[in-house]
Specification:
By secondary structure, the chain is α/β, with parallel strands linked by helices. The chain has two domains: 159 residues, Medium-chain alcohol dehydrogenases, catalytic domain (Quinone Oxidoreductase, Chain A, domain 1), CATH 3.90.180.10; 138 residues, Rossmann fold, CATH 3.40.50. Helix content is 27%, strand content 26%. The chain contains ten helices and 15 strands. The strands form three sheets. Strands 3, 4, 5, 6, 7, 14 and 15 form a seven-stranded mixed sheet that branches. It has a six-stranded parallel sheet with strand order 10-9-8-11-12-13, with helices on both faces. Strand 8, helix 5 and strand 9 form a beta-alpha-beta unit. Helix 4 crosses helix 5 and helix 4 packs across helix 9. The protein is globular, with a radius of gyration of 19 Å. The structure holds NADP nicotinamide-adenine-dinucleotide phosphate. NADP nicotinamide-adenine-dinucleotide phosphate binds next to helix 4, helix 5 and strand 9.
Length: 327
């Protein structure tokens, strides 16, 4: 099969399109013919081996990439199933969040993490959902514990995670304020935000408004400054932040968690890759998608051969919505 392998750390130029053996599914696995994948910051962190601090912590390989084929989002068709697989048959349309392997024509996926593709989505739209939508679900429902009537602020509302978070918070009955750049104000309003703050003209920590939940996707403001806009029983959810060579966004995330231990308000961190309920999360996201309360926002579509270009674009950090790849 054709796959983009990652032989060493570096820029998107290190991604190498080559022929590798098609994987053989184990007894509990399904072989999926990948029809679409999407690009996430997760991919370029693993591609560049940054932040370096994550190499020491074991999240990234110390000297060489931990992952050989990037791509955490997969939407495709079941090609074959191991002997213990009961829920899927060849021909089924599926989607999944995988640790690696989406930048290839085939990938083996454990049955336990695979879900039927939402009926109303194309493969490209479905591939936009698992990692970003899963992160948003964990942030809004679990870490944020958003309830009807809550006022929720989403910092980083226009990106992959943010466009799902705005829609999910709204679907759960919250009043949503989105923070984004000037180009994306209309987009964030169109997906359901009640109010939109352009971060180039207004500082959301200085508007005088209070929120029950602040979702820190862009991670551009310190926790003490975000605390100013939280209600006394509010919650700050740590999701991400701008990348850096040595420490970021890990430094921002863990220092916020440490600071939160001394605050009266709740501070919680999201880790979608470490989450053990990915299939249940996908089933929940499918419900939101199939009844029309959530629609993936797809910014650009790239052909398989242009995966390095897709990664280069996502790395810039300003894609409005998701960047998907047709395979
Ligand atoms: N904890 C987890 O499990 C988890 C899972 C997935 C992702 N993440 C992290 O979450 C972050 C976002 O991921 P993503 O997939 O949504 O990335 P993305 O698609 O690249 O989106 C980033 C967004 O950040 C916005 N942004 C940039 N500067 C900003 C600023 N100064 N103020 C407010 N917003 C700003 C951009 O909006 P404009 O274009 O409008 O400027 C862009 O839409 C990354 O750090 C990623 O590593 C964490």
């Amino acid at each position: 099969m054709r796959a983009f392998v990652l032989p060493s750390y570096g820029s998107p130029d290190v991604l190498e399109l080559t022929d590798v053996p098609t994987p053989v599914p184990g007894d509990s696995q399904v072989l999926v013919r990948v029809r679409a994948t999407s690009v996430n910051p997760y991919d370029w962190h693993h591609m560049r081996g940054e932040p370096y601090a994550a190499r020491l912590g074991g999240g990234l390989g110390r000297r060489a990439p931990k992952l050989s084929i990037l791509g955490a989002d997969v939407a495709g068709v079941v090609e074959a199933a191991g002997k213990d697989v009961t829920a899927f048959r060849p021909g089924d349309e599926v989607y999944a969040l995988v640790e690696q392997g989406g930048f290839a024509e085939y990938v083996c996926v454990e049955e336990s993490v695979l879900a039927p593709k939402p009926k109303n989505l194309s493969f490209e739209q479905a591939a936009a959902v698992p990692l970003a939508g899963g992160t948003a679900l964990l942030a809004v429902r679990d870490a944020g514990r958003v309830l009807p009537g809550h006022k929720v602020l989403v910092n980083g509302a226009s990106g992959g995670v943010g466009t799902f978070a705005v829609q999910l918070a709204r679907a759960m009955g919250a009043e949503v304020t989105g923070v984004c750049g000037p180009r994306n104000v209309d987009l964030v309003r169109s997906i359901g935000a009640d109010d939109v703050i352009d971060y180039t003209t207004r500082d959301f920590t200085r508007t005088g408004r209070r929120y029950d939940v602040v979702l820190g996707i862009a991670g551009t403001r310190t926790l003490p400054s975000c605390r100013r806009v939280l209600t006394p029983r509010g919650a700050y959810v740590i999701i991400g932040g701008a990348g850096g060579r040595w420490l970021q966004p890990m430094g921002y995330m863990f220092s916020s968690l440490a600071t939160g231990a001394f605050m009266s308000q709740r501070v919680a961190m999201v880790d979608v890759v470490g989450c053990t309920h990915t299939k249940e999360n996908l089933m929940t996201l499918s419900e939101f998608v199939e009844d029309g309360r959530v629609t993936p926002v797809v910014d650009r579509r790239y052909p398989f051969e242009e995966i390095p270009e897709a990664v280069r674009y996502v790395e810039k950090g300003h894609a409005p919505g998701k960047v998907v790849v047709t395979i």
